[in-house]
Design a protein that fits this description.
It is a single chain. The chain is built from 7 helices and 8 strands. The protein is α+β, with helices and mostly antiparallel strands. Strands 1, 2, 3, 4, 5, 6, 7 and 8 form an 8-stranded mixed β-sheet that branches. It comes from Streptomyces griseoloalbus. Pfam families: Acetyltransf_1. This is GNAT family N-acetyltransferase. InterPro entries: Acyl_CoA_acyltransferase, GNAT_dom, Trichothecene_AcTrans.
């Protein structure tokens, strides 16, 4: 029996934010950005809201019909150096996404800005691709194949259109899942300062 998937709209914003907040409470990277369970419980949802707003405006969010899982995708052109990229001379672009996100989410937390800058710094450029920014499955429903179904629907389209895909895995468990779906390491892991690793991964169309 297949997983029913639809494209989320603005009316689904609160559902998506709540889903991502629940799904990433125990994620190693979320724990690094928001150290401490109570701090994370009261603040983490603001970052998920910022990400949701960006992708609702600029990309696409797929969600299962029962609201238990979602995937945030951006279509990246060949000349885009990554989300929140900097100029070649190191100066921030006029539209400085990481700074804006930090101001909206938690101005005193430099890691909110840093995570955006670090992931932008390793984001591949030169080829158009689909970027899986985040995928979340609510606790209690993980391991049922919902994430695989969400990713697979976009990868099937990538294969038909001859388009590559890219993501950063935030845990060993997710990295193994992505490898099974055809993703391979795209450079060395990103070591967050005094924190966990993230694995950039690239998938050629089949």
């Amino acid at each position: 029996m297949g997983v029913a998937i639809r494209t989320a709209g603005d009316e689904d914003r609160e559902l998506i934010v709540r889903l991502l907040d629940e799904a990433f409470q125990d994620d190693p990277v979320s724990g690094w950005v928001f150290p401490g369970a109570e701090y994370r419980r009261t603040t983490h949802h603001r970052l998920m809201a910022a990400f949701t707003d960006i992708v609702l405006a600029e990309g696409r969010i797929d969600v299962t019909e029962d609201g238990s899982a979602c995937a945030l995708w951006l279509s990246m052109p060949a000349d885009d150096g990554g989300h929140g990229a900097e100029r070649a001379d190191g100066a921030a672009t006029e539209d400085d996404g990481p700074v804006q996100v930090r101001q909206a989410v938690d101005p005193d937390n430099e890691r909110v800005e840093l995570i955006g800058r670090l992931t932008a710094g390793i984001h591949p450029s030169g080829r158009a691709h689909e970027y899986l920014w985040m995928i979340g499955v609510v606790p209690g429903r993980q391991g049922e194949g919902l994430g695989t179904a969400l990713i697979g629907s976009v990868l099937d389209r990538c294969d038909r259109e001859g388009r590559a895909a890219y993501l950063e895995a935030s845990s060993e468990r997710s990295r193994l899942l992505y490898e099974r779906l055809g993703f391979e390491a795209a450079g060395e892991p990103l070591h967050l300062p005094q924190g966990p690793r993230m694995w950039p991964m690239w998938r050629e169309p089949r």
